[in-house]
Each structure stands twice: as structure tokens, then as C-alpha cells.
Amino acid sequence: MDPRRYSRVIDPKVRQVGFCPRSGQVQNQSGPSTSPPVSDISPSSNSLSPVMIPPPRHPSDAASRAVNVPAAATTPLRPRRPSFDDPNNNSSSTEQLVVSSYNPDESVLGTSPPFSGIGDDRDGDAESEFSDNSVNWIRQNDSGRFPLSLAPDGRFDSAAAKEKQSKKPQVGSRKERGGGQTAEVRNDLPSESKPLKEKTSKAARRALQEAQRAVKAAAKAAGGNKSKAASLSAHEQTDKAVKLPLQRKDDGPVTSSAAVSERRGGERPPEKDRKKDAPAPRMQFDDKNRVEKAKKRSVVKQTEARNRVELFRHLPQYEHGTQLPDLESKFFQLDPMHPSIYKVGLQYLAGDIRGGNARCVAMLQAFSEAIKDYYTPPEKTLTRDLTAKVNNFVSFLIECRPLSISMGNAIRFLKSRIAKLPITLSEAEAKSSLCSDIERFINEKIVIAEKVIVEHAVTKIQDGDVLLTYGSSAVVEMVILHAHKLGKQFRVVIVDSRPRFEGQALLRKLVKIGVSCTYTHINAVSYIMREVTRVFLGAASVFSNGTVYSRVGTACVAMVAHAFHVPVLVCCEAYKFHERVLLDSICSNELGDPDAISKVPGRMDINSLHDGTNKENLQHLNLMYDATPPDYISMIVTEYGMIPTTSVPVIVREYGREHLLI
Amino acid sequence: MWYRSASFILDQQQNDGVAKPESRLLSPTAPPLSMAETPQQIPKISAYYQTRAAHHGVVTSDWLAQAQAAVGRQADEAVSDDSLSLKSGESPKAFSVIDEFNNWRKQPELAEAVAAIRALASVIRSSEANTMMELEIELKKASDSLKSWDTTSISLTAGCDLFMRYVTRTSALEYEDFNSAKSRLLERAEKFGEISYKARRIIAMLSQDFIFDGCTILVHGFSRVVLEVLRTAAQNRKLFRIFCTEGRPDRTGLRLSNELAKLDVPVKLLIDSAVAYSMDEVDMVFVGADGVVESGGIINMMGTYQIALVAKSMSKPVYVAAESYKFARLYPLDQKDMVPALRPIDFGVPIPSKVEVETSARDYTPPQYLTLLFTDLGVLTPSVVSDELIQLYL
């Protein structure tokens, strides 16, 4: 409503540029058009789907050719290119100019001297293969842009085209020639570079040079190492180097459409940048070298479980209960670790502190203690040294138990506070400011947030409702207690699962205050769901695509509820939101004690699988978390209100920064 | 669903011995009445629909009697409300928001929310407050009394809330002296009223790209925005035809078809139950909205949900035209999770007293059945609504 958003009214018109009536035809043509020049060399390219990123072809010989490439001699060989043209191209070459000037996408292809330069230096088939590669590449992006546009249905195209006609006469005239023509234009795209090449701009020439330089470097790299694998990587490098100037090229005067920028985002950045940009990768525990290295550093000596499920080898799994006595004995020897941190770590290890919020609060309080007892060593600055210390603490805690997302966010907050401390503060002031920051984080992001969530969630409980909850979530428990306190009449179904039976604690509390409860196991969820009117779930984290990451079994409950058309409400504090995207529960998860699922507590005699634990062909999988797809979730209740799953990125965007600033 | 299950019946039997909290729920009596209505349950009419009926002039005899009775009550209530505020108010003020609001509301082209916004703007104008805080409190009180005047109208509540946000948002106001701050406030209020007033035009412009020659549009309910959209399309010499549902019980469709016939647009009237029958001829569905909720779904006249369902199953696009002052921070989970707006239904024959009548006037259409929303903020997908709301309210 304020001026900023008022101006956005024009947005839809801008988006209209994306309406391109040629989508279907291009798609249809892509197969046959590329095949003739390629078929004799690489039949595999024919089968490439337009959606796939083309893999580097002929790794060994293409690379060895690249090695032989002389750096110069680009232009003289150019005139060869028309030989690849079909006879009918020449007639349409004039319009192609118009097209390429209109559509930046096509101009990218049409004026790609770096590509053709390299291709020409090799023999003819290599070139055709390479340029064909580029055709595929661009085309793939081109088709990818159509979902981007706002087209409500196929028919809309005509309206959009009309719009364009009024705006841009050239385009309109081109359009009238009909589908066959436009498709043809696409076919000959590689040949387009010929008429354009004569007037290569300064930028283009520079890009060319750079490409050559990159090729040289690659050649050098490949020359040093003759093994096949190396040459493959070299090829990849040249591939990338070639793409880089290409990118730079279209940064030029041509106004880049949304599609182009989209494409650029999707393209792989050069190796160096990638390393810089990407967050530090999580430890992959199937990588033996790194595991060994990490072990040397670690304080906690964990023995790894021997028999792990193949799909989850990248997650740490330890023999449970072996390291506790050892650590306890070391309690007084551990110099670098603050006792409060040590204590919290041990509690994590032993499983005394569970639940996202509890773990996070305990960790923050331990940090607060540690900061209080901290003194900056001489000749060091507080900011640097304390950050290093905190890193130490964190790596110790990770060794005890992998961090939850909420803890990660809290640590990020603390670190940013430390980094932003003004230098003018004295040590005591800095420490007290940090402690009060931590205090405030706990208060605002957890305690008060929970209260606000309860206020919101209670409005969704009406008299006569039957609520279902899974496991034991602190927030959901508060919601139920509060609703009961308000005198609402409702029943609760508590669904629980082995091996932890966390729901029993909740059941005990609810029964004690007189809430009518039903307790059942997850096996019966499809039966009990028909009488349920609301499902309340807790969450360990919510990801940007709306995926809820929670105690294992939650996804199952949510799915059943969805199937029964029962609304699913997820209660989650906003500090647990994460900007990452999670698609499955394999990539990031935690493994629990594998023995726990085969044992029945208190009944040592029921242990039929016990002697099988060390067998080769039996593996236990005790997953801790799972990912619930956003489709199954009706709403997420946060302290910012009740939001749909699609608004998680909005919260992350709007409050992610403030989150660090409070 | 749930009350049929075995375990519930068992619980029921146990409970019967002790107390009967749930048995009351089992017999589905009328849902709890909203604030605006008096305890007497007979008329059961939402003020929102009274207003609409008054504007549209489609009134049955039975309905008129009830509406008049209700309006009488309403007036009484407004007076009592006013006298109450007089008692509690610190200074005796001759000015009443409700009167002002009713004045504005008399213009049929003016939406309820815009009338409320104008009324609130005049509150600022006539205020005798001396400090910013006082003024804000006064404004708050006025908007509260407006909101409680008709709790069933979503756009009224949302419009008031948005106005409050828009007017009092910046802290820059605090640093100026009171008079200039007040004039600044007034300026903004006027501007906001202006924007809201123009919203319909903007929407009409935006939606033109979606109406193409030769298309068939299904319209449900009488929405002034949709009418504006269609009128603009007709003026732009687009060739299209309209299917218009009858819109029982207040026959909104008849009125809309009247208007469209005046524009020389070919119209076909359907009875409400013929929607699925004629859906395969339809190219797009156009509806207005009483309110747009956080999930991106809409609350609209009864029947919208089923039309959207049919359209979805035949994969026809459903477009919603709604001004941004209808965006409300509500999140209904299902049809019953709303403040019900009730409306009498004239069946033409006497209904036996044992027979219950569903008098709810509107339903909730979840976002997955909507294709796009045309608002004055732009053409939005349903998921953007929440984005906008978060930015507006937080």
C-alpha cells in the first residue's frame, strides 16, 4: 500500500516478456535438428533429453585434442562454418539478425565466438560436436524458462502476442511468418555467428582471448598429468573456461531477460568461486580420509558401529554407551573445554537433554557460563580468540551429538554478535553484552515465541475437536495445556512409537490434569485418524521449501492425516527455520543407537535379534528424523502468525537478518 | 466423520453419566452468533449482506421485513454503542464514526472498506486530540467500534487494520510537532483512501490481458470488481461471453446479468446447480472475494468453493479479482473454521419447523483451487498473498 508496492503494479507487464509463443515448436524440433551433423561422431548425443545437462563427451580424446590446440588462429578458420548450414538458412539469415537482437537468449548462441573459436581449431567433427553441445545447453535453458512465465493456459499466448505486436513491430512481423519459420530459425542458430562475427566488439574479442588463455592453462594442466582421470578433469576445466567468457559476453549491452539471469544462476560457477561461496560441506562419514583426520582432532573417542546401512553411511554412527565412562574420567584433565560445555556435551551424549529447544537452551546457557569465565589471553583480541573458542566448543558438542538446525542458528547468532562487538568495549563490557544477548535470544526467540505460538494455535482448537499429536513436542504440549486451561472441550489422541515412547510423558501430564486422552502406537494411526479433527505436530526444523524436519514418524502421521483430509498444524518457532532446501530424509539425518530397535526395555528375554547384530547380512537402521513434504501440511504456526508452508522463505528473508541483529 | 467412530461413541456413553459437554456439540445447533447480532435468534442476518442487499436492491418480501427489523436493531445498537463510548470517552464528542461510515456507505459504488477508511480519515480530521498518542488511541477506538459494528465483514476489518498500519506505521511521525504530524497523517489517510478507491480500476487494467477474444467466462456472485473488469473488457472491444450463475438466494447473478446486458455482452444465466454441466464450454472462471486469507484462499459467496472444485477437476483457470484491502490475517482450516455470516433463505414455500436450513452465506475456497489473484498489488499467485500480508502486518 505504500508507494513502493504501489509501483509494483506494472510487474505483470514486465513478466509478459517471458511469454514466448515458440516454446512448443522449439521443443519439437530440437531432436532432429541437432542430429545430422552429430550422428556420425557421437550417437549418444541424440538420446540427450533437453532437460539433462549434457555430460562432457569423449573425455579422453577431446581433452587430448584440447591439449594440442594452438592458442591463436581463430578467425581464419571461421568461413568453414557455413558448410554445416542447410540450404534454406541463407534465405532466413536477415531475420535472424532481428531475432537475435530481440531475444538475448538467442544472441548468446548466435554470437558465441569463444565456442566456435575452439571448435574450429580442432577438426570439423569436434567442432560440430562442441557447438551442438552448446545448442543443447542453451536450448535446455530456453525451455526451462517457460514455466517461469505466468501463462495461465495455452490460449493466453495469443493475447501475449498481441501485446507484443503493439509494443515491438519487429517481433510482430517475425511472428506472423508462423511456426515453421521460427523453428527453422532455431535450427540454424550456429550459423548465425557468421554474419555477426565480422563486427565482433571489443568485449567479444577480449572474451575470445580469455577463452584461449583458459584453454592454454588447461592444456598445461593436462600435459602434466597423463592419466585418464586427469585428462577428464582437464576437459571439464576447458568446458568451464569456455563457458565463463560466454557468460561475460552476454553481460554486454543486450538487456538480459529474466530467463538469462536464471540460466546464469543455474550454471556451475568456476571451481574457485564455488569453493568460496559454498558453505563448508558437512562431514561425510563415508569418506575415510576425512574421518581419520577428524578422529585425531576429536576429544571424544567414539568407536564406530561396524555394520551400517548402505544408504546412510555418510552419517556418523557410533557404538552407544562406550565412551561415557572414559569421558567422565577425563573431566578434570580437559584443559581447553569449559566445564559447563563439557557437562552439556555429556548430557547430549547420554541423552539426558532431548528436544530441539531444550538442547538449544542448554547449549546457550553453557556458552554464557563459558563467556563469563573467559579471559582474553595476552596479545590476542577478544573477537578473534573468543570466536575460535566458540568454534572449539561447537566441535566438541558436535562430537557428542550432531547439532540440530536450531542450535546451528543459535551459534550463528552468537558468532555474529561476537564479530560485531565494537572494539571500544572493554572486556568486561563485551562479556556482559554477549551474555545479555544470549539471554535475550533465549527469551525472545524461544520462551516468548512459544507463548505467542500457543496464543495463535489455541484459536484453532474448538469445542468438540479431537486433536492428534505425535510423540512429545514441548510447544504442542503447551498448546494443549493452555487450551484446557481456557476450558475448551476436546479430546487428545497421542500417537507414539518405539523405541523411545516419548508420548508417554506427555500422556502422563495430560491425564493428570484431566484431559481425555487416547494413547496408541503409530501402527494404528490410519485407524484412529478417521475420528481426528486436527493434527498438531512439533518440528525440529522447517526448511525453505516448506519441508518439515521432525521426529521420525511425523511424515507418516502427516501423510495419513492428509489422506483423511484432516488439517495438519505444525508448531515451530521461527528461529528453527533454515534457508536450505531439503528434499529427502537421507541427506541430512541422525542415526540413533541401532540396538535400540531390536531390544525391548526390561525384557531381556525378548531379544531374538540380539545374536544377529554382528552378522554381515543384518543391519539396523534407527533414524532419528524424517522430512515431511509441504503438501501434507496445512499451516505452520510461528510467532509471526499462522503461515502457509510457502511463506517460510518469506520469514527467512524478512527476519533472517533481524534474527542476527536483535 | 469422527463422531461416527466406535471409540467416540464409547466416550460418549461414559460422558453421558457425568456431564454433557459434548452432547450439545453433537446436535448441530446454530453456530455461535457473531457480536453484531442480538441474542434473539430469529432474523440471523449478517450486516454485511444487509448492506449488499440495500445496494443491489434485490429484496424479497420476507427478506425485506427481516432486514428492516435487523436494521432497526442495528441502529439501536449503534446508538447504544455511541452512548457507551460517550460514557467512557474522556471528552463528549459530537462526532460518530458509525454515522460517518454510514454516510459514506450510502454511495453504492463505494466499497465497505473504503467507506470505513474514509470514515477513519474523518476521525483524524475532526479529532481534538493534542498528542500523537491520544490521536492514535482515538483512532484505535474508532476502528474498533467500526469493526465490531459488523464482525462478519472481512473487508471491513481488514480495511480498518490496514488503514491503522498504513497511517501509524512510521516512527518518523514522532519527531515532528503535533500539528504537522497530524496533517501528515491526514495526507496519508487521504492517499490510502484514494489508492483503495482506485484499486478497482487497476485490477480491471491488469486483468485485460487475460480475457481474450472468443472466450467464455463463468461468473459467480455480484462483485463490483468483476463487473468493472468485464466492463473494461467490453469497452476494449473484446469479444467474449459470460455465463452467469443465478446466485440464490439473493439472486446476485440476475443483477449481474442485467448490468452486462446493458453493456451488450452476451450473457447466459445458469442455475447454481448447472455449473458442472456447462463447465466444459467455459474457458475461465472469474469470481470476486469477500476476503482473501493468509493461505491465499478466498472467502466468498456460497458456491464459490464448488465452482472452483469443478473448474479444477476440468482444469479450467479460476481467477479472483480482489482489492488488497480485502487481505485479512485469517487462516481458516476448513469450512467451519470461520465466523459464520448468516443470511435468510426464501424457499418460496413454508419449511416445516423440524427441517433445518443451512443459512451460511459464504464458503472458503482453499488456495490450491485458485489460479491467480488479480489485485491492485499486481497479479499474484495464491502463495504471494501471505508474503504481502507478512510484509504489511509485521
UniProtKB/TrEMBL annotation, chain A:
A GO cellular component entry from the record: cytosol
Organism of origin: Coffea arabica
Short name of one Pfam family: IF-2B
GO MF term set: translation initiation factor activity
Protein name per UniProt: Translation initiation factor eIF2B subunit delta
Amino acid composition bias (Polar residues), ranges on this chain: 94-114, 131-143
Family: Belongs to the eIF-2B alpha/beta/delta subunits family.
Region (Disordered): 1-300
UniProtKB/TrEMBL annotation, chain B:
Location in the cell: Cytoplasm, Cytosol
UniProt keyword terms in alphabetical order: Cytoplasm, Initiation factor, Protein biosynthesis
An example molecular function term from Gene Ontology annotations: translation initiation factor activity
InterPro entries documented for this protein: eIF2B_alpha/beta/delta, elF-2B_alpha_N, IF-2B-related, IF_2B-like_C, NagB/RpiA_transferase-like
Renumbered residue ranges of the record's region Disordered: 13-37
Keyword Iron among record annotations: no
Coarse class of the protein's main subcellular location: cytoplasm
Subunit structure: Component of the translation initiation factor 2B (eIF2B) complex which is a heterodecamer of two sets of five different subunits: alpha, beta, gamma, delta and epsilon. Subunits alpha, beta and delta comprise a regulatory subcomplex and subunits epsilon and gamma comprise a catalytic subcomplex. Within the complex, the hexameric regulatory complex resides at the center, with the two heterodimeric catalytic subcomplexes bound on opposite sides.
Protein family per UniProt: Belongs to the eIF-2B alpha/beta/delta subunits family.
Full protein name: Translation initiation factor eIF2B subunit alpha
Lineage: Eukaryota, Viridiplantae, Streptophyta, Embryophyta, Tracheophyta
